[in-house]
Specification:
296 residues; Purple Acid Phosphatase, chain A, domain 2; four-stranded antiparallel beta sheet; binds 2-acetamido-2-deoxy-beta-D-glucopyranose; binds fe (ii) ion; PAPs-like
């Protein structure tokens, strides 16, 4: 009995120690930055800031962003907004070393929020991509078309190296810009960003001024058009304001940020999972049950 207990204890000890070693080995990223955020509350960047510039050309696609488009990483959802008219739903795309241009057709939608009417929001899933390959893609028409690129992840497997970034509560303050710049300049070179909820903070404005969702989309494009941002909703995405008859939770978020929830058999974009390289990412939204009668 005693011996048996001891055996059990030593087994646990060995297990605990090897677990600690494995944490140290696998997870010790070290201290990567001496960055300390200013304690003053930072203000939102003004509307005429460089980060909010509208791309030139009639009806030019703006707020371009991508996310994973299926369960294993062979598809990408490309999303963008055209301001003046629906324009084209097509995405043209080709592998770096290929002459062959493929095209895929997406959908376009709009929504209203109090007295705001959105631009034309396009979502297009491009499928059957090769793993570990650089692709270029184009959206828009003629001389207003715009070209971007992304790199698909390696095939999934237990030991596949891959680097994720983590950002949450980004908003659009001057600090938001230094957070994004900090991520971009990190020598570890994040390949995909896990976004932990609370995107634009448009809900801080009177009537949740949804024009601040558009400025946020233009702000993050410089990164989110080139690598997938994996989305989770936070409390700032609920956007329910019964006083102005806005009672559908997550309306701006779910119209603007599409995710591959059906690929994991989910019935809600707030709950889904994907595999990517060596990870299995499960997205849970603790706010998804919040409806009309909620308190934050
Ligand atoms: C935001 O950061 C980028 C890159 O670091 C810089 O070029 C730009 O001027 C900054 N804009 C504002 C409004 O701070
Ligand atoms: C919406 O209504 C508010 C309050 O009346 C007003 O300040 C704002 O300019 C309006 N916005 C639009 C897009 O009409
Ligand atoms: C873009 O094309 C349109 C129509 O095809 C033309 O009217 C316009 O001048 C062109 N703009 C530039 C900058 O080339
Ligand atoms: Fe937050």
């Amino acid at each position: 009995m005693v011996a048996a207990r001891w055996n059990c204890f030593s087994f646990q000890l060995v297990f605990a120690i090897s677990f600690i070693f494995s944490i140290a080995e696998v997870c010790n990223g070290g201290r990567t930055s001496s960055f300390v955020r200013n304690s003053d509350l930072s203000r939102d960047m003004p509307l005429d800031s460089d980060v909010f510039l509208v791309p030139p050309g009639y009806n030019a696609p703006q707020q371009v962003h991508i996310t994973q488009g299926d369960h294993l990483g062979n598809a990408v959802i490309v999303s963008w907004v055209t301001p003046d008219e629906p324009g084209s739903n097509s995405v043209f795309y080709w592998a770096e070393n290929s002459e062959l241009k493929n095209s895929a057709q997406g959908i376009v939608l709009t929504y209203k929020y109090f007295n705001y009417t959105s631009g034309f929001i396009h979502h297009c899933t491009i499928r059957d991509l090769e793993f570990d390959t650089k692709y270029y893609y184009e959206v828009g028409i003629g001389n207003s078309s715009r070209r971007f690129w992304f790199v698909t992840p390696p095939a999934i497997g237990p030991d596949v190296p891959y680097t994720f970034g983590l950002i949450g509560d980004l908003g659009q303050t001057h600090d938001s810009n230094s957070t994004l710049t900090h991520y971009e300049l990190n020598p570890a070179k994040g390949q995909t960003l896990l976004f932990l909820g609370d995107l634009s903070y448009a809900d801080a404005y009177p009537f949740h001024d949804n024009a601040r969702w558009d400025t946020w989309g233009r702000f993050i494009e410089r990164n989110a058009a080139y690598q997938p941002w994996i989305w989770t909703a936070g409390n700032h995405e609920i956007d329910v304001v019964p006083a102005i008859r806005e009672v559908i939770p997550f309306k701006p978020y779910t119209h603007r940020y599409h995710v591959p929830y059906t690929a994991s058999g989910s019935t809600s974009p707030l709950w889904y999972s994907i595999k990517r390289a060596s990870t299995y990412i499960i997205v849970l939204s603790s706010y998804s049950a919040y409806g009309i009668n909620f308190t934050i």
